[in-house]
What does this fold into?
Amino acid sequence: MPGDDIERGGGGGGGVKSRTNNSYPSSSSSYLIEDRETQWTSWLVPMFVVANVAVFIVVMYINNCPKHFHSRFEGNCVARFLGRFSFEPLRDNPLFGPSATFLSFGSKIEWEKVVQKHQGWRLLTCVWLHVGIIHLLANMLCLVFIGIRLEQQFGFVHIGIIYLLSGFAGSVLSSLFIRNSISVGASGALFGLLGAMLSELITNWTIYTNKAAALFTLLVIIAINLAIGILPHVDNFAHIGGFLAGFLLGFILLPRPHYGWLERRNLPADVGVKSKYKAYQYLLWLVSLILLIAGFTVALVMLFRGENGNDHCHWCHYLSCVPTSRWNCEENQL
It folds into this structure.
């Protein structure tokens, strides 16, 4: 709508919140001393990229700006030579995408629709929608830089689980704290991969060199990206939810065998290596599994009971937007 801003990477008016992320490291693998495990061929992450692009193309085809253009918006459809793939007027969607009204059909929007009208599927579909081509390109570049290297190291099953569960976790936390705004984007899932990189470094601490440098780099990148989330119209709760889920899943799915176990073939026959993983890795695995199950259980129970997360945490709205003299956070604090 006129006068409204959009961004979570995204789109037009109507208070669309984008899940936006910026710079991530391609992988922490450069700090590994020696990886004797088989390198996987990455195919799932490229498929995720293709799927996201395909969904955006379908959305633009159905949106058909020239046919459904509303005169209340100032300006004409952008890039009209693209026909029905042309973008909505920049006043409606400054990130070059479909209308906010159209995005609402598959986005995480209004708690009542998700829960009372039994449209829980929105918690999944919103991860595959993007507000505009700028939002899409930013997220897909990050997915390529992070996801391909992780998939090569740990395989498509582990990375696929982390990506999908993190995206879902981001949608759930967003629904608890931001109840009446459109919210779309893959960055909850991308923050999950980033969180998994951090926990992977921690759980495999003994087989990395330059540990301090690796940890410092990741923490700085995490802090910068989460800090950007406190700007208005950016759904930082989706980022936080995805990051926490990915962080716990990293301890569960990404532990590496300790160096002694990898070198067992080079040891004398009378020297046995009893355990593939170290004791602290087993402990982190167990604690993370318990926290992950408990977190999802509590969040889903609260969501489908209709509870507002802000009622239980009166300061949490500052995690998604900090008001200043230049902007207010009313739309972020619904």
Remarks:
- The longest helix spans residues 279-304.
- The beta strands are 17-18, 183-184.
- The chain has a mean pLDDT of 80.
- The chain is about 50% helix and 0% strand.
